[in-house]
Amino acid sequence: MEEKLSFPENVVYREEPEGGILFNVDTGEMRVVQDVAWGICHMIDSGSSRSRILRELRERYPEVDGLEGDLDSFLSELSETGMILQDG
């Protein structure tokens, strides 16, 4: 079963010209994401699963080792701060 990722109802994701912003309306916490993190958040916002995001990263960056660990670390960080929901 694929792990489904989504933003909770209290988190607003907004794309900006140079990246994106995650904003928790309950806590006021804000996080600016750029580059690869922006791409990951964009894919989450589009309904992509963890495995699909990982496949996309491996296609875009075949020369980079450790993509899975980097992705999981980023997702854990977002999850721990309540910025995403992980189901599955």
How big is the Rg? 13 Å
Instruction: Name the CATH class.
Output: Alpha Beta
- As a percent range, the share of strand residues is 25-35%
Largest sheet, spatial ordering of strands: 2-3-4
Low-confidence stretches: none
Q: Which structural category fits the helices and strands? A: alpha+beta
Number of H- or I-type helical stretches = 3
Oligomeric nature of the chains: single chain
Label the CATH architecture.
Alpha-Beta Complex
Tally of individual domains:
1
Shape: globular
Q: Which fold name fills CATH's third level, the topology?
A: Outer Surface Protein A, domain 3
Order of helices and strands: EEEEHHHE
The biggest beta sheet is recorded as:
3 strands, antiparallel
Q: On the 0-100 scale, what is the average pLDDT?
A: 93
User: What's the end-to-end separation, in Å?
Assistant: 7 Å
Percent in helix = 40-55%
Question: In words, what does this structure look like?
Answer:
By secondary structure, the chain is of the alpha+beta class. The chain has a single domain (4-87), classed as Outer Surface Protein A, domain 3, CATH 3.90.930. Helices cover 41% and strands 25% of the residues. The chain is built from three helices and five strands. A three-stranded antiparallel sheet has the order 2-3-4. It is globular, with a radius of gyration of 13 Å. The termini are close together.
What is this structure's SSE topology?
Elements lengths: L3 E3 L4 E6 L2 E6 L5 E4 L1 H11 L4 H11 L6 H14 L4 E3 L1
Antiparallel strand pairs: 1-5, 2-3, 3-4
